[in-house]
Structure formats: C-alpha cells, structure tokens
Specification:
The chain has 109 residues and is an all-alpha fold. It is 73% helix and 0% strand. The chain contains 7 helices and no strands. Helix 1 (2-8) packs antiparallel against helix 2, helix 4 (47-55) runs antiparallel to helix 5 (61-76) and helix 5 (61-76) runs antiparallel to helix 6. The longest helix has 16 residues, at 61-76. The radius of gyration is 13 Å and the shape is globular.
Length: 109
C-alpha cells in the first residue's frame, strides 16, 4: 500500500494505508512500513508529517534508515538542499555515507 502511495503520489492513498494498518497490524513490519511511509508522505506533499515521523523515532539504526529514506525522497522530489540537511544530521558515518549515496542517486537530472 505504501508503494501505491509512492508511485501514485495521491494523498488519498495514505488514508487507505492507515485503515489497513489498523485492521491488521500484524501484516505490517514497523521498520519497513515507516521507511515506505516517509517516502509516500514526501511524494504526496506531506514533508512536515514525514519529518515528524522521523523525529518520533528513537535514536539508533532504525532512525538512520528512516532518515535515509526521507532524504532520498526529498532529493527525488526536487529538494536537494533539505535532503542534504537530513543526511548531515545522521551520526553513524557508515549510514551517513549510504544516505549520501541514496540522495545523490535520486537527484533529478
């Protein structure tokens, strides 16, 4: 469902995701859905909500992975400055390098 929102870029699909997650939360792995949800939120015009979702995550590898998805989505959506700002906030050097690669590979030509 998150991929449908990502590719359709339609905010209405986010409501469907929310409903499905509430109906059967066992089908959704939080770590995976959060990364996909951040991308979907950015592509549907809800960057602020995606940023809040990232801020609500405890510090650690999961937050770094969500930050990487957030930064890549921002770059792909045409906001490279904001994407680089997210990357610079990642503490883990290996994850920061990976996030930088993700951002660079998603810059629009």
């Amino acid at each position: 469902y998150a991929n449908i929102a990502i590719y359709s870029r339609e905010p209405e699909v986010l409501r469907l995701i929310d409903r499905k997650m509430k109906e059967d939360p066992a089908d959704f792995v939080p770590a995976v859905i959060n990364r996909l949800l951040v991308k979907a939120l950015v592509f549907c015009g809800y960057e602020t909500v995606a940023e809040e979702l990232l801020a609500d995550q405890p510090a650690g590898p999961e937050q770094d992975q969500i930050a990487t998805s957030f930064a890549a989505a921002l770059a792909q959506n045409g906001n490279p400055q904001a994407a680089l700002g997210v990357v610079l906030a990642i503490d883990n050097p290996a994850r920061k390098a990976w996030a930088l690669w993700e951002v660079a590979s998603n810059f629009k030509d």
